Amino acid sequence: MSKSIEGVIASPGIVIGKAYIYRGDNIIIPKYNITDDQIEKEIKRYDESLAKTKEEIKAIQSQIATSLSNDMADIFKSHLMVLEDPYLDQKVRETISKEKRNAEWVLNDITLQLIQSLKSIEDEYLRERIIDISDINKRLINNLQKTHDESLADLKEEVIVIATDLTPSDTAMMNKKYVLGFITDRGGRTSHTAIMARALEIPAIVGSQVATSLIKHGDIIILDAIHGKVIVNPSRDEINEYEKYREDLKQLEDELAAIIELPSHTIDNETIYIYGNIEIPDEMNIIRDHGAQGIGLFRSEFLFLDKSLPDEEKQFEEYKKVVEFFNPHPVTIRTLDIGGDKIYAFTKQYKERNPFLGCRAIRFSLENEFLFRPQLRAILRASAFGNVKLMFPMISSVEELLKAKSILYEEMENLQKLGIPFNQNLPVGIMIEVPSAAINIDIFCKYCDFFSVGTNDLVQYTLAVDRISEKIAYLYNPLNLAVLRLLKLIADVSNQNNISLSICGEMAGEPKYTMLLLGLGYRQLSMSSAFMYQIKRIIRSVTIEECKDMVNNLMQLDNTYDIENAMMDVLNKKFPNLFFK
Ligand code: PEP
Ligand code: MG
Question: Whose alpha carbon is nearest atom 9 of ligand 1?
Fold first, then answer.
């Protein structure tokens, strides 16, 4: 019998393949039933892991005995005692046979029960054994799963990766040739892992909460990232049905692709610019092939994934490559936005309690001028080769912006003195992604050439909802009236002041929000390639007037669900065949 799991669509598409459980730094406890004839094999797995764990502990013991002392090595005696405890050992074997469950699950369950009973005992010595027991449990489970402990860069066959969570760097490093798709327990649609999946066009579902406990290594999976569903060990009929569905989708996509040749304007002739978001320069081909008219957001921090930091020269080469490729179209390069869920090898030392509210983005750059200045110089130098715009992320006050600009001007002077060419009139703008910047938008008009609205963060900070949390994902809704009011304020004030305005949060790349954004006054949308065709089709099928009418009606409603329903009513009537998810 197949099982079905639901989750949040991070990147659209449908794939069918074998599950590969990726543990990263996490311990994953799969839970599944076994049949009578698998019992013996399961107990053998347990025996092997027991033997391996004993070996490991003995090796640690002798290493400590030589490097430190015999007394210190004796600490591990109690670990061995736990491992050799006949009661525990017997109980694990019996439970595997009786309950017909996998060894990891049985072992973990028995350990948790034991820990629970020890917790209630008033004996310090026994209580201290809790740490030994959980350490041993971890080791045993680790060894049970050792068979497939590889890095995602070393995959040798096509798989669907299943993980508790993936970091943006795990995703960036994936061997795209072999990763058909991925499913995680944690994460939300605007986590950077999800953004990366869209950028690489890898179908993905995040926030499933249970994938790692219900899916085993080697299971056959249908990853349906169109409806947000995963089918584990599907029947032949289900596979046939999905294969057919996949072909239909491909055909639809090919038909939509013809739209590239057509201009991007509304029925009433208002030009709407479609730009691309990129994370790594390699994505520029996909973006141009989808018909984008430039780059509205180049997330430069992804160049910093490696342990060795890219120097000015390396960055210059990377920026120049993209800038020349799109010339004369614009390329908006955003300075480092490190922090939040983008913690890299070299920032691990800055562990913070509230990373999204901490030393992130421009705050990090202003504190680390040794990284900021070379980046500014690299961007400035690239500006001599095409149409570059420079953007600062997460600006929350004018002081911060002025400080960043003064450093930029110093670097301009430095280049000038050295006779190195750059665009003296380089447009300088900011992300509007913190409520304080949105509220003070009139003030920022005095100091900026352009704005780009980052709804991923604007929604998170306005609603106080962590953008990567699967638990409160239901609260993360860009249609909350507070967000709509801010978006309208930003558009109204920027348009009155003739400040170029674009929007580059994930909202801009979701077809269901296109009419809303046009009605609010946005004319430049920057997005991943995933839905560019659909969005262009919507643009070409509407008038600005009807978008404005829709927005006026929606903004009379108080409740987010009413707003969503009213918006979907309009869309479903107007586009009965376009899929909105
Ligand atoms: C945003 O916050 O909307 C944005 C585009 O930036 P990032 O997702 O990189 O934080
Ligand atoms: Mg942001």
Answer: 299
- The residues lining ligand 1, judged by C-beta closer than 6 Å to any ligand atom, are 195, 297, 299, 337, 433, 454-457, 504-505
CATH value at residue 304: 3.20.20.60
Task: Point out the residues that are catalytic.
Answer: 192, 504
Residues 375 and 294 in one domain: yes
**Pairing state between β 220-225 and 204-206:** unpaired
pTM of the model: 0.78
CB contact at 8 A, 201 and 11: yes
Q: Residue 16's beta-bridge partner residues?
A: 222
Q: Are 451 and 501 in contact (CB under 8 A)?
A: yes
Full domain range(s) for residue 16: 3-24+150-235
With respect to residue 364, please indicate whether it lies within any of the assigned structural domains: yes
Do 45 and 11 reside in the same domain of the chain? no
Q: What is the full per-residue pLDDT of the chain (581 aa) written as tens digits?
A: 678 899 999 999 999 999 999 877 667 788 888 999 999 999 999 999 999 888 888 877 776 677 666 766 676 777 788 888 888 899 999 999 999 999 999 998 998 888 888 877 777 667 667 777 877 888 888 888 764 445 677 788 999 999 998 877 778 778 888 999 999 999 888 888 888 888 888 999 999 999 998 999 899 999 999 889 999 999 999 999 999 999 988 888 888 888 988 999 999 999 999 999 998 888 899 999 999 999 999 999 988 876 678 899 999 999 999 999 999 999 999 999 988 887 666 666 567 888 899 999 999 999 999 999 999 999 999 999 999 999 999 999 999 999 999 999 999 999 999 999 999 999 999 999 999 999 999 999 999 999 999 999 999 999 999 998 888 889 999 999 999 999 999 999 999 999 999 999 999 999 999 999 999 999 999 999 989 999 999 999 999 999 999 999 999 999 999 999 999 999 999 998 775 44
Q: Domains in the chain: how many in total?
A: 3
Atom of ligand 1 nearest to the CA of 457: 2
447 CA to centre of ligand 1 in angstroms: 21
CB contact at 8 A, 9 and 189: yes
Burial of 317 (0-12, 13-18, 19+ CB in 10 A): middle
